[in-house]
Specification:
With about 80 residues, this protein is an all-alpha fold. The protein has a domain of about 50 residues. Helix content is about 35%, strand content about 0%. The chain contains 2 helices and no strands. It is globular and about 35 Å long. About 0% of the residues are buried.
């Protein structure tokens, strides 16, 4: 994202694309999330707002803090 707009480009190196191995229970949850909420397509965003647009930074922070509190975490970061 650049100035609130998507700026698709190739990764800086081959290391920019990684295979992530997830336990089966997470794969199931992630698949359900992707099917219900994420943008369609290989370059679609995993997390979008109610209108299907990218989250604003302030919205993402607010939702992250609420989710973190519901999970009983006080200092986890989204990266």
């Amino acid at each position: 994202m650049t100035a609130g707009r998507r700026a698709p480009d190739d990764t800086k190196s081959d290391a920019g694309k990684r295979l992530v191995v997830l336990p089966a229970f997470l794969r199931t949850d992630l698949r359900r999330h992707v099917d219900r909420y994420a943008e369609k397509g290989p370059d679609g965003l995993l997390f979008v707002g109610e209108k299907g647009k990218p989250f604003r930074r302030s919205t993402l922070g607010r939702k992250w803090r609420r989710g973190r509190a519901l999970a009983g975490q006080s200092s986890e970061r989204p990266h």
